[in-house]
From TrEMBL:
BP GO terms, sorted: immune response
UniProt cross-references to PROSITE patterns, sorted A to Z: IG_LIKE (PS50835)
Similarity-based family: Belongs to the MHC class I family.
One cellular component (GO) term of this entry: extracellular space
Disordered, as annotated region: 299-320
Alphabetically ordered keywords of this record: Glycoprotein
Domain Ig-like: 204-290
Superkingdom of source: Eukaryota
InterPro entries referenced in this protein's UniProt entry, alphabetically: Ig-like_dom (IPR007110), Ig-like_dom_sf (IPR036179), Ig-like_fold (IPR013783), Ig_C1-set (IPR003597), MHC_class-I_related (IPR050208), MHC_I-like_Ag-recog (IPR011161), MHC_I-like_Ag-recog_sf (IPR037055), MHC_I/II-like_Ag-recog (IPR011162)
Residues spanning the signal sequence: none
This protein's name: Major histocompatibility complex class I-related gene protein
PANTHER family reported for this sequence: MHC CLASS I ANTIGEN TRANSCRIPT VARIANT 1-RELATED, MHC CLASS I-RELATED
Organism: Merluccius polli (Benguela hake)
Length: 320
């Protein structure tokens, strides 16, 4: 459920080299019957970067970014206020698990309630969006349709809740104002406090890699920030969709990111490679174009010794 939402929001986060959709998200997780894991956890993320954390073991909100220190100096009640809110939510979610177990006719076992809410802001056209989604045991339970101000119940057990919440017009209007205004104001505030981190641009290094002559050629981009990047192969100026395998964006130890996109050239003659190129798009910089030139491909194979390419033969690592 939430994994899909992560993937969709990540793809929506990048439109062009100049346009960015920023996001503020909170994830609440309550569980019962899970050993060695807090019964309640809250994670707050801005542009996919965690900035605050709370769990039922520590029972206090903790900052996860150094730039948040300045915000708390300007807002001395910030941590105390969030701690109080999370403590109240912890009690509510503990009770909600028991209610849901009864509604699903369950007794013991491992069970989990998840809640994700937040907003997005497009820094180009100033449009906004919001989301409020509840899940139980890994499945959607009830979801807010913000555009039509109604709740959607994907499962029969949630229909009673839907009817009750749909009748609460005051709550729906509050949600409309919160996700379109208040949440966005907080998002912009976090972006301002963390702009040296959140709004910086790091140019990626791009390499073409191939493990064996029969292996796909990998376009590997690393060292970029933010993590919203588009990498694709094209032939004769047209983007390729077949014989292409897109990898996930992964973090580097220094806080930057890396990603790889494979291109299977098994049926392509070497003399036709010049028709292909890898394109990397990152916000704030011009597109990086890397032609598929055999001389530029770093490999783990080939001759060694006199006349060989022993230096290039050791270029590939497990990170690619």
């Amino acid at each position: 459920m939430f994994e899909q939402l992560f993937a969709e929001s990540h793809l929506q986060g990048f439109k062009t080299g100049k346009q960015m959709i920023h996001s503020l998200k909170y994830f609440y997780t309550a569980s019962s019957g899970v050993s060695n894991f807090p019964e309640f956890v809250v994670v707050g993320m801005v542009d996919e970067l965690q900035f605050i954390h709370y769990d039922s073991n520590s029972q206090k909100a903790e900052l996860k970014q150094s730039w948040m220190d300045r915000l708390t100096r300007d807002n001395p009640q910030y941590l105390e206020g969030n701690t109080g809110n999370f403590l109240n939510a912890q009690q509510d979610f503990k009770a909600n698990i028991e209610k849901l177990k009864r509604r699903f006719n369950q007794t013991g076992g491992v069970h989990m309630v998840q809640y994700m809410y937040g907003c997005e802001w497009d820094d180009e056209d100033d449009t906004t969006d919001g989301y409020n989604q509840h899940g139980y045991d890994g499945e959607d339970f009830i979801v807010l349709d913000l555009k039509n101000l109604r709740w959607i119940a994907p499962t029969p057990q949630a229909f009673i809740t839907k009817l009750k919440w749909d009748q609460d017009r005051a709550r729906l209007e509050y949600n409309k104002n919160y996700y379109n205004k208040e949440c966005v104001d907080w998002l912009k505030k976090y972006l301002d406090y963390g702009k040296s981190t959140l709004q910086r641009t790091e140019r990626p290094e791009v390499s073409l890699l191939q493990r064996r002559p029969s292996s796909p050629v990998v376009c590997h981009a690393t060292g970029f920030y933010p993590d919203r990047v588009v990498v694709f192969w094209r032939r004769d100026g047209e983007e390729l969709y077949e014989h292409v395998d897109h990898g996930e964006v992964l973090p580097n130890p220094d806080g930057t990111f890396q990603v790889s996109v494979d291109l299977d050239l098994a049926s392509v003659p070497r003399e036709d490679w010049r028709r292909y190129e890898c394109v990397v798009q990152v916000k704030g910089i011009e597109d990086i174009l890397t032609p598929l030139d055999p001389a530029r491909v770093r490999t783990n194979w080939g001759k060694t010794g006199p006349g060989g390419d022993g230096g290039r033969n050791t270029c590939l690592t497990t990170s690619t």
